[in-house]
Inverse folding.
């Protein structure tokens, strides 16, 4: 069986050796030594000024919306995981959908201004599959219309743009450390914010507003990462470069074998980006071909995934305007199996099946 992704599990004894430090300390949550150590390691590795480790990658989005005091309308992308939209609605704001760029699959910056109204307070966009949004254009629009910018960087661990972490763009960026993501802590995530004051505020929000044991700074929620999660993260982190190098090889193999193929579309990577090679999306000519490829692969116990499906403007609680490209792509896309030690033989097998269907 080959699945779309395979969670990297470090040797169990290495996890246990780290975990035993939590046991020895008798301290398994509330920001113990392991969470702090993980934060320090990630800060250095990613090259970000501030980081807050969290229990998943969704609460950071909600906390960012809360901390920035957003109300009214938030301009967002329909082509992302459901958490991007649900966080907006959960925080009592209205998502206003802008279609995606056909090549980059990120929000189409040239359509954003037409969606701005006097109720718009922010842009929440996703660096889809780790491919950066046009952060410069979005920054310009945000400054012109006095909007905040949040980036859902769930896919972006280790991604750099113009030589710096993609998390260094926007007012707040988030990441997910879910088991299906490149770097993971089982469940987990992080908040990034270059502004030290705002980062403080985000920090208080993620821990009930606690400012020490008996003082509070405003309202908060519980989004803390536990020591158990941090221990897994520290054990996985040792292998991060192996994981990225392995995936790069797999990515390049798919790319070289599929780039000449007619009637499919591959993701165009934004110039000056160093990807983390988390996903390999393929857009087929239509839904019928897409589902045919999926079924054919599944018969052979190979499981690609329709990611992202459905287009988020179609969620019943979103009341979004139509976004034709995202709606079409969501029915035509498959993410091919992708993990660091996927063998070239398996890849070749997957590619042959795809070519078979395309040539029918
Ligand atoms: C995975 C993901 C999330 C949610 O992260 P969790 O850690 O599962 O809460 C948010 N946005 C995108 C784009 C994702 O892929």
């Amino acid at each position: 069986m080959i699945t779309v992704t395979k969670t990297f599990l470090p040797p169990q004894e290495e996890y246990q050796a780290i975990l035993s430090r939590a046991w020895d300390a008798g301290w398994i949550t509330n920001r113990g030594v392991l969470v702090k150590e993980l934060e320090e390691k990630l800060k250095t590795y990613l090259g970000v000024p501030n980081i807050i480790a969290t229990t998943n990658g969704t609460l950071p989005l909600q906390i960012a919306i809360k901390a920035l005091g957003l109300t009214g309308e938030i301009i967002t992308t329909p082509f992302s995981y459901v958490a991007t939209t649900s966080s907006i609605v959960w925080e009592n704001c209205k998502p206003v959908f802008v279609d995606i760029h056909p090549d980059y699959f990120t929000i189409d910056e040239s359509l954003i201004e037409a969606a701005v109204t006097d109720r718009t307070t922010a842009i929440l966009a996703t660096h889809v599959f780790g491919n950066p949004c046009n952060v410069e254009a979005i920054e310009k629009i945000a400054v012109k219309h006095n909007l905040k910018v949040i980036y859902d960087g769930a896919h972006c661990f280790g991604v750099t743009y113009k030589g710096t972490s993609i998390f260094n763009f926007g007012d707040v960026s988030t990441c997910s450390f879910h088991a299906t993501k490149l770097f993971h802590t089982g469940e987990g995530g992080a908040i990034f914010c270059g502004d030290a004051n705002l980062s403080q505020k985000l920090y208080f929000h993620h821990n009930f507003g606690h400012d020490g044991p008996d003082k509070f700074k405003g309202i908060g929620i519980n989004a803390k990462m536990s020591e158990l999660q941090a221990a897994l993260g520290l054990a996985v982190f040792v292998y991060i470069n192996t994981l990225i190098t392995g995936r790069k090889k797999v990515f390049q193999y798919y790319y070289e074998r599929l780039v000449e193929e007619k009637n499919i579309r591959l993701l165009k990577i934004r110039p000056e980006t160093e990807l983390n090679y988390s996903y390999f999306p393929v857009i087929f000519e239509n839904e019928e071909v897409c589902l045919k490829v999926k079924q054919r692969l599944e018969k052979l116990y190979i499981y690609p995934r329709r990611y992202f499906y459905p287009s988020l403007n179609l969620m019943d609680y979103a009341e979004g305007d139509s976004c034709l490209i995202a709606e079409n792509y969501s029915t035509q896309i498959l993410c091919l199996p992708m993990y660091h030690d996927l063998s070239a033989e398996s890849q070749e097998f997957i590619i042959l099946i795809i070519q078979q269907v395309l040539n029918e």
